[in-house]
């Protein structure tokens, strides 16, 4: 299954790089409690339900979403079941699922082990959020500050700072920026061109990671772009015939180019942020294989 391949790759990356950090700092790592909490930022790939609580049409709180989720009900996740953060949290022994921060029923226990701030439809570009009425990464950072304040009231400022610094932070964003501002709809960003817009988004990544660091995060994983040209919405817009959908090679090569830039950028960012572990997670290859070889995963094209 595709999701398991991606999760295995991400978990392996987390373990290798965290152990490198532990060796450098003489810390002892226990697999069962490698991270005390998980904190999630980004878009629909990892939004566990925040959009249920804001005024946007970008929602997944209706069937068939959630048909394989525990309880068989839609939760706001853009999935038939759990999302990548849920699987990671479970496999790392943190919790079974990651709740959305805007859930009014969050318990102190939920806060202690981390929450999700992601919002479907969001991106690093403010034009993206204006188009989708989602929560921008800036708003997600504000929500995070509110989270830290509540966490501090529960365990005290010193312990709260420790939890945040040791938490696994996952960031997955950028796809909507390219879809909305470069490929699908008229936008002032088009004048930047592909390379210029890539650099513009990378500056957004830098600013957001810096902001997370300033708030107290130290272990940050940033996911790269998927093969955007193989996303169903992109193939549908570009199709020449009613029942013919193919991956768009140019958009895929744009994604690869961006990912290479992102890897270098994250290395540079880490070198300037003392005590940080900032690493790149590749999801491109696994999703491309799924899109181009669906039969290998038990799927078939109608």
Automatic annotation (TrEMBL):
Name one molecular function that GO assigns to this entry.
hydrolase activity, acting on ester bonds
Q: InterPro entries of this UniProt entry?
A: GDSL, GDSL_lipolytic_enzyme, SGNH_hydro_sf, SGNH_plant_lipase-like
- Asked if the Swiss-Prot or TrEMBL record annotates the protein with the keyword Phosphoprotein, the reply is no
Which range is the signal sequence, renumbered to this chain?
Answer: 1-22
- Which domain of life, per UniProt? Eukaryota
Sorted UniProt keywords: Signal
Protein family per UniProt: Belongs to the 'GDSL' lipolytic enzyme family.
Which protein are we looking at?
GDSL esterase/lipase At1g06990 isoform X4
